[in-house]
């Protein structure tokens, strides 16, 4: 029970937000209307992605000094899990954009920057594939991961503020805080963020365990 | 003090090597000039100043990838080992970065001169601000590409890896630069550009700091 309580908590929270997010009341706003519910499913993906990429940078820094294979494996598996959430964030955003902006992809700055930051991590995975020697691969990819992380932070958090965007919360469009005058949405949004972060972490631990089992199997053969 | 001496000596070596062969500087200059001509022939009907501005930055981007990537990719394993024995890793990365900044400053200044000469109608009303953008561009391209070319050369798969790894990192910088240059083309007052100049400085400081921290790990084999 000690080790599984957060998994249960994560699952319960995600199931709760899926039901409550679709059934509970939301403020009626022009243009957004019912599509405002996408907040519960779109924004938590980015939170989970950021948490997973931060875990990856943490283990990359650790693997540079410890040179241990386990740290390297943790770094790459958290990137793998983070990319899933990044792609889900892009897809949920695009579906929402189809119904509010009229197109899946309208080259809005926020869409572009999110896509570029996912590309950054695809580049990381390709860099890993390009190197055969394991220790060299661990070292060089850890260096690229640490080097790229500040750029991702600039892309996702700083640049969108300098540009005009149609995205809620940017360029004079109302953000989450101004929708939510009656605090009804907070009851779902905060649990959704926590739940998806926990699920993301769970996905990462499963991927890591799978990878280490595969490695052990290869070594024993 | 010893670091400063080493850096001075290594920069002197780089300049001397380049001065003897004049390969990089002439090669990249010819590349820039022929690209400008090709673009002129293909887009001759394009009257829009902003499109010419974007085109200028694309030309500079590819020229600097070609110019800067030589710094590490060109060196043989023996040469790298030799400078590893003689100098500290910090001195190596600082000298390469400074040398590349100097090289890019020369190249981009000549390219801007040629561009304004050929496209008489392009000449921005605020040439000084445009030149500030060009200087900031040469500095940021050099700092980012020097570190990425070090990573790509260690991965041992030159050209393609260099492009894949550097594009996602350079795109935020490029967006800021095009915005800054657009302000100059539109002839806006300088106060409107302080945000972009400040952001570019922050990005450069971040890049140089992470390169200095990470390069010693990369250098050791």
Mean pLDDT reading of chain A: 86
**How many beta-strand elements of chain A?**
0
Element pattern of chain A in H and E? HHHHHHH
Provide a count of the helices of chain B.
Answer: 8
- Outline of chain B: globular
The major pleated sheet of chain B works out as: none
Alpha-carbon distance between the termini of chain B?
27 Å
Oligomer: heterodimer
Largest contact between protein chains?
Answer: A-B, 28 and 30 residues
Structure description:
The complex is a heterodimer of chains A (221) and B (221). Chain A is mainly α and 221 residues long. Helix content of chain A is 76%, strand content 0%. Chain A is built from seven helices and no strands. Chain A is globular, with a radius of gyration of 19 Å. The model of chain A has no long low-confidence stretch (mean pLDDT 86). With 221 residues, chain B is mostly helical. Chain B has eight helices and no strands. Chain B has helices spanning 2-21, 23-42, 49-73, 77-86, 89-118, 127-155, 158-186, 194-219. The radius of gyration of chain B is 18 Å and the shape is globular. The chains are: A mainly alpha (221), B mainly alpha (221). Chains A and B meet through helix 4 and helix 5 of A and helix 6, helix 7 and helix 8 of B.
Short note summarizing the structure:
The complex is a heterodimer of chains A (221) and B (221). Chain A has 221 residues and is an all-alpha fold.
Secondary structure: elements and pairs:
The complex is a heterodimer of chains A (221) and B (221).
Chain A: H1 5-23, H2 39-66, H3 69-100, H4 109-130, H5 134-162, H6 176-179, H7 186-220
Helix pairs in contact in A: 1-7, 2-3, 2-5, 2-7, 3-4, 3-7, 4-5
Chain B: H1 2-21, H2 23-42, H3 49-73, H4 77-86, H5 89-118, H6 127-155, H7 158-186, H8 194-219
């Amino acid at each position: 029970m000690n080790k599984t309580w957060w998994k249960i908590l994560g699952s319960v929270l995600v199931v709760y937000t899926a039901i409550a997010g679709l059934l509970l009341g939301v403020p009626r706003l022009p243009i957004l209307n019912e599509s405002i519910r996408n907040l519960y499913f779109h924004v938590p993906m980015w939170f989970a992605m950021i948490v997973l990429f931060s875990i990856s940078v943490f283990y990359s820094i650790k693997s540079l000094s410890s040179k241990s294979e386990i740290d390297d494996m943790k770094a790459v598996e958290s990137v793998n899990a983070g990319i899933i959430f990044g792609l889900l964030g892009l897809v949920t955003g695009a579906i929402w954009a189809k119904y509010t902006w009229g197109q899946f992809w309208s080259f809005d700055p926020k869409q572009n920057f999110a896509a570029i930051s996912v590309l950054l991590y695809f580049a990381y995975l390709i860099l890993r594939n390009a190197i055969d020697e394991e220790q060299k691969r661990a070292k060089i990819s850890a260096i690229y991961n640490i080097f790229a992380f500040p750029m991702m932070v600039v892309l996702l958090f700083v640049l969108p503020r300098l540009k005009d965007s149609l995205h809620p919360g940017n360029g004079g469009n109302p953000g989450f805080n101004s929708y939510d005058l009656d605090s009804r949405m907070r009851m779902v949004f905060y649990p959704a963020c926590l739940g998806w972060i926990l699920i993301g972490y769970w996905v990462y631990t499963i991927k890591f365990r799978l990878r280490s089992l595969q490695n052990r199997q290869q070594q024993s053969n | 003090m010893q670091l400063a001496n080493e850096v001075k000596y290594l920069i002197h070596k780089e300049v001397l090597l380049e001065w003897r062969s004049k390969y990089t500087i002439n090669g990249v200059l010819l590349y820039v000039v022929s690209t400008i001509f090709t673009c002129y022939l293909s887009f001759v009907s394009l009257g829009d100043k902003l499109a010419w501005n974007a085109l200028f930055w694309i030309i500079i981007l590819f020229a600097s990838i070609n110019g800067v990537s030589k710094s590490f990719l060109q060196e043989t394993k023996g040469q790298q080992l030799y400078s590893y024995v003689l100098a500290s890793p910090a001195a190596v990365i600082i000298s390469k970065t400074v040398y590349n900044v100097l090289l890019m400053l020369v190249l981009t200044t000549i390219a801007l001169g040629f561009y304004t000469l050929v496209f008489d109608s392009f000449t921005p009303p605020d040439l000084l601000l445009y030149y500030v953008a060009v200087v900031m561009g040469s500095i940021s391209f050099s700092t980012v590409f020097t570190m990425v070319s070090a990573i790509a050369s260690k991965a041992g798969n030159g050209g393609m890896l260099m492009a894949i790894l550097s594009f996602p990192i350079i795109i935020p910088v490029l967006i800021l630069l095009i915005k800054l240059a657009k302000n100059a083309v539109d002839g806006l007052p300088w106060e409107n550009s302080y945000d972009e100049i400040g952001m570019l400085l922050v990005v450069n400081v971040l890049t140089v700091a992470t390169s200095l921290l990470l390069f010693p790990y990369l250098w050791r084999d």
